[in-house]
Automatic annotation (TrEMBL):
It comes from Sphaerulina musiva (strain SO2202). This is Aldolase. GO terms for molecular function: 3-dehydroquinate dehydratase activity. CDD domains: DHQase_I. InterPro entries: Aldolase_TIM, DHquinase_I, MurA_subfamily. SUPFAM superfamilies: Aldolase.
Length: 688
């Protein structure tokens, strides 16, 4: 499926990413190498891309498909000459099922000739993980661009010898974190006799650790190999060892790699040239206790780090509180558009003040960690408590307006505030949708509001500045307080529901799967469907058809006969009430079919995924076959269950609202939370 030209970009205010930044006009061209008997991964890749694929028995026979098929799949064992991979004019991704690799191993010489390597296991659902991996390596998911806009970012430093010990609690561990650091040097791979550990964990073991971590967190991964001189365990005798592991991290799609400054410049230069979409954190640590931020050496280290680093990290062990003030003077001297981002910290109890003042990737710990990663390291809650004591986090009143007590949203917001030790008070206001909240907004202590159900703009002329999304959708579900120049304040009325829907749409499909495709939205009114329509438009869906309501610029389908006018829609969204949600079933059945055709020794298959989202509040809970939802299956009376049996990828209101209130919390207090934690904290009320 070729992706057509996109409409002109719409400027979106207040930090919303412009869609041209994440979607390319040209479709990706991939060559997927798979292990013997694992050809199914090719169809999964194509489905995530929303495109066609071909399976070729040999690399040579795939040449004819170079312009016709987006994804080519070839068995790794059939490739005799690795040089031919470079002549395909495609991004080459080696895929390995770790269940097989544990027994048979993998051909590293072949993988070294590939652009990327994707590891997966059959014991877990991989589609979301694969979508994130592909979106990142193809340049459609750019976490660094979003994080650099934040006023303050943190990085959870994991210190587990086996990351599997962290996975059950990853949602709680990562509350307040913007990235997760995998300390590869702290991993302990059991030896062959199980009685001891390998001095350096092997690549296969580390690759599995990266795979497991990415499957359980939505946060960017920082891949770190800390040397013995800088409080780590990786030996320093062989710098090429670092290059091998860090290049692997790039192939595995890690969003950040930590490159230590002591490494030879040719290695740092090569990594910078080969980093793809990964970003480099150029790291330097001093444990001598003699380093001074006021010395000329400090600036020399910074500028040397800046040669190949997207972020410069400098950390020194100190014994005097005065060193924190010297660091702040240095920090201000290296800030500006011509410099990379700077993360500067002092270690030890005397240096903890610097951890509250640093604004870029401050390493944080958590009480559930086995140990801290560095002397004086603090948790997100401890940093916020210190900021409050310094007057940098004043107590504010955060409002939850509407049915927030019944649906669990207030419970979630309160738990999050407590988890990261924010001083704000949560005030719940249970009132009708049309009542005014003007009196709350006018308070000096007003710290923002989350409104559910959303407030129609037409009923609230007193609302502050509207974002483009809120104005277009006509509904406000969040009011944020933003700091302006000279520490002033401005209020922004926003709609984040559409972000929750868009995040759900792109959970299992990459953004470039949507341009050129069509969608159908069912609703009883335009207002009911407004957020869904906006989300689809933001992804540049070519045509949106409506059923049950009219809206300007989109064709309304009047009956089942009109469905033939729409060719294989990628998305069907039902915004109907629970009582009317079964009206979507005939639409889903109409578009359920599979296309196959053969050519020569290659099988070409149309692998166009289909997404169904049911936005009905209080929809019947169930445990779906693809891992969404909770509760019991209610048989044929459940629209989601029927959609799944018809082969649609399904999502519920709970999936969308989990993303939505996570976005709202980030906007309200600037802290990050995962969807897993949203579900845990909000409870069953989330589905109501």
């Amino acid at each position: 499926m070729a992706v057509g030209a996109m409409p002109a970009a719409t400027n979106r205010a207040y930090g919303v990413m412009k869609i041209p930044e994440i979607i390319h006009n040209e479709p990706p061209r991939l060559l997927v190498l798979f292990d013997t008997g694992e050809d199914e991964i090719t169809s999964t890749v194509a489905d995530v891309l929303g495109c066609t694929y071909a399976l070729a028995h040999q690399l040579e026979s795939a040449q004819d498909w170079s312009e016709e098929v987006v994804v080519l799949g070839v068995e790794s064992g059939s490739i005799m000459a690795t040089d031919a991979l470079r002549d395909m004019g495609r991004t080459v991704i080696a895929t390995h099922c770790v269940d097989t690799c544990r027994q048979e191993g993998s051909d590293e010489s072949l993988t070294d000739c590939c652009d990327y390597e994707y590891l997966y296991t059959k014991t877990a659902l991989i589609r979301h993980d694969l979508a994130r991996f592909l979106a990142f390596v193809l340049g459609q998911y750019k976490p660094h661009e979003e994080l650099r806009k934040k006023a303050r970012t943190t990085m959870l430093s994991t210190t587990f010898s086996d990351i599997r010990a962290a996975l059950p609690n990853m949602g709680i561990l990562s509350v307040g974190a913007d990235a997760v650091e995998l300390r590869v040097d702290l991993l302990r791979e059991p030896g062959g006799d199980k009685a001891h550990f390998e001095a350096v964990p092997g690549l296969q073991y580390v690759g599995e650790q990266v795979m497991l971590l990415r499957q359980r967190t939505e946060l960017p991964i920082v891949f770190t190999t800390r040397c013995t001189r800088e409080n780590g365990r990786f030996p320093m005798e062989d710098p090429e060892l670092y290059y091998t592991y860090l290049r692997k991290a790039i192939q595995w799609g890690c969003e950040y790699i930590d490159v230590e400054l002591w490494l030879p410049e040719d290695i740092r230069r090569k990594l910078a040239a080969e980093k793809g979409h990964s970003k480099i954190i150029s790291a330097w640590h001093d444990f001598s206790g003699r380093f001074k931020w006021t010395s000329p050496v400090a600036h020399s280290i910074f500028h040397e780090s800046a040669l190949y680093g997207d972020i410069v990290k400098m950390i020194a062990l100190v014994s005097d509180v005065e060193d924190n003030y010297e660091l702040e003077f240095f920090r201000h001297s290296v800030q500006g558009p011509s410099f990379p981002l700077f993360s500067g910290l002092n270690m030890s109890a005397a240096g903890q003040l610097s951890r509250t003042l640093n604004r870029v990737f401050t390493p944080i710990t958590h009480p559930l960690m086995p140990m801290i990663a560095a002397p004086g390291q603090l948790s997100a809650a401890e940093i916020n408590s210190m900021l409050q004591s310094l007057g940098q986090k004043p107590e504010l009143e955060v409002y939850a307006v509407g049915r927030v007590l019944d649906n669990g949203h207030a419970k979630f917001l309160e738990k999050c505030l407590n988890e990261v030790s924010l001083p704000h008070r949560l005030l719940c206001v249970d009132q009708p949708q049309t009542c005014s909240i003007q009196s709350y907004i006018a308070k000096a202590q007003f710290g923002g509001a989350y409104i559910n159900p959303p407030l129609p703009v037409e009923f609230a002329p007193y609302l502050p500045t509207l974002t483009e999304a809120a104005s277009t959708i006509g509904q406000v579900d969040s009011i944020f307080v933003q700091t302006t120049v000279n520490n002033g304040r401005t209020l922004i009325a926003d709609n984040v529901t559409w972000k929750g829907i868009r995040a759900t749409l792109t959970k299992d499909f990459i953004p470039s799967a949507f341009p050129g495709r069509s969608a159908i939205v069912l609703a009883s009114s335009e207002a009911q469907a407004a957020a869904a329509m906006y989300a689809l438009t933001s992804l540049h869906v070519a045509a949106i058809y409506t059923i049950g309501f009219q809206t300007a610029g989109h064709k309304q389908l009047q009956g089942l006969g009109d469905l033939d006018l729409v060719h294989e829609p990628l998305v069907v969204i039902s915004a109907l009430s629970v009582e009317r949600s079964m009206a979507a079933v005939p639409v889903l059945k109409h578009y359920t079919r599979t296309l196959h055709h053969h050519r020569h020794d290659t099988q070409c298959i149309s692998s166009k995924g289909k997404i169904f989202i049911d936005l009905a509040h209080g929809a019947v809970l169930h445990q779906s076959s693809n891992g969404n939802g909770n509760g019991n299956n209610n048989g044929n009376n459940n629209t989601i269950s029927i959609a799944e049996t018809l082969g649609w990828k399904t999502f519920t209101y709970a999936d969308c609202i989990a993303w939505t209130i996570g976005e709202a919390f980030r906007g309200l207090v600037g802290e990050n939370v995962s969807c897993d934690f949203v579900r845990l904290a909000a409870g069953r009320g989330l589905y109501m």
